[in-house]
Amino acid sequence: MDVLESGKMATKTLLSNKLRSALTMLGIVIGNASVIAMVGIGQGAQRFVAEQFESLGTNVLFVIPGNRDAQRTTVDLPKTLVLEDAKAIATQVPTVAKVAPQLQSRELVTYRNKNTYSSVVGTTPEYTAVRNFNPEEGRFFTQLDVKRNNQVVALGSDLAKRLFINQDPIGKYVRIKDVRFLVIGVMESKGSVLGTNYDDSALLPITTMASRIVGENSPYGVSLTFISISAKSDASVEAAQFQIQNLLRLRHKITREDDFSVQSQKDVLEIAGTVTSALTVMLAAIAGISLLVGGIGVMNIMLVSVTERTQEIGLRKALGATQHDVLIQFLIEAVMLSAAGGIVGTALGVGGILLISAFTPFQAGISPVAIALAVSISGGIGVVFGVVPARRAAQLDPIVALRSA
What we know:
About 60% of the residues lie in helices and about 20% in strands. The chain is of the alpha+beta class. It is a multi-pass membrane protein.
């Protein structure tokens, strides 16, 4: 008997037991759909993280106080960066385009009877260029505002809506830590970036922030939370990083371990990419377990089928079917169940990815490699887990099979 004839018989047998065949396929369907969806979600997470970093601004470097050990183990970082460091970087590093020192704290912001705790950021006018964050209404503060310690503020869009509801905030006054500030601008909506909601922030001149909100808490000047820097081009990021490190080592008279770290956007993105890739692999591996369970289900049902079809097997062998013919028929049945489950699972996985892309921020990707791998594995599962029941069917003695019937 040729393979084509065996295939026809296998198809007829599976269609005659539709419910059992469907339940057998279910494990393979769930496994394939899970693997494809998890890989798609992982790729979507990688794209989302990359877009989040790109939204921070182009060619961005971050100078953070404290060495790497302190950054990993300490909530309150040491105050090793001051405003003069930022000014030195801006004037002495040739590969740097803009420098935006930042001094941050969380304070009570009040307008009339409305109170809310928000992130308050003291910075300079360069902040808008470095962080790609511009006012949608009104204006941002100027160097003159910084020089004069003017009590002006630009509000994030969410904070402005929460405080003023349907009113125009421009020209009105809010109180930050009992200090009165004139609202001069409302920033464009930027959303959350890596857990920080930029729309829920109040931006002040850094000199006003230091003198009226947090105070100068360093003997060397205005201490900073960190410094954001934009390099002149993509090609100059590494050079800028090297030059900033050397300048700050000279300024801080460092002979051993640095009391700061300079991280490029690319460095942080690579770390985030490594984490999301590892999570993708882990999710795919967990989802892959369901494929294994589905394969065991296929073997279990095929063994039951062999037991139920003992008379049929005995009759076929009595009429001249060889062990090879019986083996091929049962293997084809197992492969057909697995392959059909793989196709249905693939359709469900792709559909799930499209739904996730439509209703969440994650632009989940459809991975042809994941689809090919999942379908190949599901087909292979049919072969691997179909071998045992197929061999058992092929080795049945026709006389014993007919007697047992």
